[in-house]
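Hi R.,

Here's the input for the adenosine-5'-diphosphate complex you asked about:
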Amino acid sequence: MRTAIYPGSFDPVTLGHLNIIKRAAACFDRLIVCVMINSKKQGMFTPQERVELLRKSTARFPNVEVDYSDGLLAAYARRRRAHVVVKGLRAVSDFEQEVQMAVINRKLNPGLETMFLASSEKYTYLSSTIVKEMARYGADLGEFLPREIVEDVNRRMQELQERKD
Ligand code: ADP
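And here is the predicted structure with adenosine-5'-diphosphate in place:
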């Protein structure tokens, strides 16, 4: 069984991520989308909530599993018997850091290859950060987020704004 991992913070999952998930799932027997926990970043959603949003958004893909990890990706991949890490590349600006991570991951786990999928041109501008910014100003998120989670994101933004007032 060929298993790949698609790691990220997914705070929240966007249509750009979903496009990569769909294309990567078509290339492997199983794709594990893994929410990686970065303790330095305080997110809009907790890791468990991000997993739930990803599950809602990927329910129609039978070979996609969603999980989270607070450890090293190289160790997680070994434990899940995955040999490939999938990454999406939006622009050259993503490239330098992603290549550095790929080299480090292979140093830590020599059986682990990183494969890059070029972002669909429709989504090269899209990031979770941009979506959060747009949500803050009440923009219509339907073009940017899986439809299953638009309500969740709007609701959370409202809660966060009410808490601040
Ligand atoms: P973000 O930058 O949106 O916060 P993540 O840290 O969750 O994203 O990213 C996880 C992975 O998804 C990375 O490989 C990133 O390059 C990729 N990715 C993010 N947004 C897109 C997009 N719009 N199109 C293609 N790949 C993307």
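One thing worth noting: The chain has one domain: 3-164.

Cheers,
M.
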